[in-house]
Amino acid sequence: MKKFLFQLILMILFLQFSSEKLFSQIASESLSSKAASEALGDPRMLKLAETIVNYSCELKPGQKILIDTDEDAAPLVQAIVKEAFRVGGYPFVKISNAEIDREIVMQCATDQLKLMAEFDLLQMKAMDAVVLLHASRNPMEESDIPNEKTQMFENIYYHAVTTERLKKNWVRVKFPNYASAQFANMSTEGYRNFFYKVCNLDYAKMGEAMKPLAELMRKTDKIRIIASDTDLTLSIKNQKVIPCRGKGNIPDGEVFTTPVKDSANGFITFNAVSPYGGTLFDRVRLEFEKGKIVRATSNDTAKLNSILDTDLGSRFLGEFALGVNPYIEKPVKSILFDEKISGSLHLAIGNAYSDSKESNKSSIHWDIILIQTSECGGGEVWFDDVLIRKDGKFVLPELSNLNPENLK
To answer: Which of the four CATH numbers 3.40.1830.10, 1.10.555.10, 2.60.40.1120, 3.30.70.580 does domain 2-199 have?
Structure first.
């Protein structure tokens, strides 16, 4: 069976091997001919494609790169394909459709999910780099999928394929479209300008500015978070610290670590709307005792607690992070952007992506954001009883280069 699947995957990869002519046709179908032509010539998009291929994925001659995408992102896909060929790489493209994906999750059985995971794992193992590039036409497409179906999909398929992807050079990008602009309460042009501004910053400069914060976090034991209806402590002692500077997400701009599993105590109220599983959660409030979420409320408390009951690790934390992207100043209802808001922090419920000691394991990973700028109510972050950030601004001199006026 495995031999057959391997032969089949080689055939699929051959068929998926991209030609520029094919992607010109796809791009023209996703936009009007004039709009597609203009998009493909947008220097901001070409710059982003170069960043994705050369900086985020570090693609070398002869290496294979998978672009997992949908039809609305075709202009950027074509630009990435062009750049991958230019550096001597082999681009492969997998195009999906959210409505069809929804139907599969709604109807699929365990045996099918296992086969899907085995099939896609073979493909993933053959790759050197992966780009997740999507532009959902309906961000709420998953809203009516029963939670038990979502859990089955995440447990059997998503977790296995994601674990393999994380071994590669990879990056996640959300291409701007009408739906994302509407979701962010922006005009289409305004959102597109926002997108390129927050994505095409100087990640090398950001990476240098992150070094003192990462070093301080590596020396820190206790963190205390104070804000409106928030007083939470947790430990990050001896945990791995990762500065995110365009290697895993675009846009990027966070420094994260993994809380010691049993260390969180107190309560926190998040003030950014957080989408998860097709639901927009607002005013999520969590209470912790010895690391575990013991009480949770929101605008949909029943669904929130259903998610928290997914598995043994889903009521524990997998991440603590500080956001520093200077061009992201307010939420746009997309976690990929909102978790990098300058002056914000976020906690992730569920799985820990770092290889830290005592890290939590779960099939879910959900980042929820607290913005601490003065415009959003303010707040403080303390490391071992030393104030390091107040009302969204770093107060220690060695961290001042991470304040927005110094990163722009």
So the answer is: 3.40.1830.10
